Every structure is written in C-alpha cells, then in structure tokens.
Amino acid sequence: MITYALRYEDDGIGIEKRVEFEADTPAQALLIAQGEAEGRWAELSADGRPICLLGRENLGAGNYWVIRPQQQPEIVAPVSAPQTPERAV
What we know:
- Helices cover about 10% and strands about 40% of the residues.
- The chain is built from 1 helix and 5 strands; from the N terminus they run ββαβββ.
C-alpha cells in the first residue's frame, strides 16, 4: 500500500488541513479523496513525493476532477559558449 496525502492550504474557503490515507493506485486514491471539499485545491502526494494539484468543480453537467501538474522549481543551468571544432592541418 502507498500512503497518500491531500494537503489543503488556508485559502479563505477553508482552513489548512492534511488528510492521509492508504491506497494501492492513484485511481483508488482519487476515489477515496472524492469526499473532500468541492471548490478547493489540494496537493496530492504519494509517500511524501508530490504528484499533482487537484480539485473538484461543478461544471454544469456534473462534478469533475480537475488535475494540474505539480509546479516544479525552475532549474537554471549556465550555458557555455559552443565549442568550435579544431581544423586539421
């Protein structure tokens, strides 16, 4: 079993909270999480590793999960000047 966690921030709709549960797959984790607050965003992580941001929204025809990729820190690496090939003499 994998330990999943939903982490909600204090967003003006509700207070900060963390919900932990176990599931075998991400699909099962979403089924377990479906009882959580509609209209709020949460970070879903598995064994401490962030997976995505998710929320539930009522879009007229039904209630849907909206899943966004987890924001990754931008990696900036120095760019070196291109190497010029040496000419054979």
